[in-house]
Amino acid sequence: MGRRENGRLLVITLSNIGDLVMTTPVFEALSRQYPDCPIDCLADARSCELLASAPYIGELFIRDKRAGWTAQFELVKRLRGRRYVLIVDLRTPLIPYLLRAERCLIKLRTAVPGVHAVEEHFEVVRSVLPSGAEIPPCRLHLAENARLRAEELLDALPGKTWLAVAPGANWRGKRWPSRHYHELLQMAATAFDGAVILGSADDQPASRSLEDLDLPVCNLVGVTDLPTACAAIARATAFVGNDSGLGHMAAALSIPTVTVFGPGRPERYRPWGLSARVVLAPDRQLDDLLPAQVFESLCALSSPTEA
Predict the structure, then answer these.
(1) pTM of the prediction?
(2) What is the dihedral angle through the alpha carbons of 18, 20, 25, 27, rounded to the nearest 10 degrees?
């Protein structure tokens, strides 16, 4: 049933960057099962930025939740212009019923304790895959223009062994203190040639305290779009960050990734992959998580001195 000439699939995916990355095994599995079917995608603009360069993507439909009913109606009208082989909805149970498809798979279940989000998303499509199909790794595909832009931005950083760090998060309780990142980077000067600091414009105050170090630093906080940040992470030897989307991006690029967790549910939301490790703060208090603990985990995972 996998090969369909001139057929198309539609995946309606999630807007949070971490959640989006955790849906990429669904895209990868569907592209293998339906190799002749482009996969259209309905997502927000930031998610579409990350998916645009994937070889299986057909057309990207941007959904702005803040847009009025007229814009939403026009979007549905455009989507109804196609008849899909399969629609997979990981976000909302409504839109597929307004469209035309031979089959719809809709995620309706709430979170199951102990089940990772990647596993939960993948179960939605398991019925159209071969029996016993394994979950592919999370994967992001680099855009060539983003790769070239990242090379330009990182050109002045010496050496080739770089540590990428992301000191931000979507809320304060998830942020490991900047002073701990500063100490971690001082330790990293013994093992890495340089550091790349990444994050959104909101993270700039925290990032400025990380520039005065014994380690050469390239501060890209607030400078890059998501594809360029992705390409910059791909140039790194290892990554350390908070529970945020950039950590998921690093793991999806197979970069050795250490994520510090205070509050949150790492059993469900940790970056997925063999190259990813979590360090839990004592009693979930990030202030009490010592840089030496994180550096030890980083060295054990990435072995940067042996690179």
Answers:
(1) 0.93
(2) -170
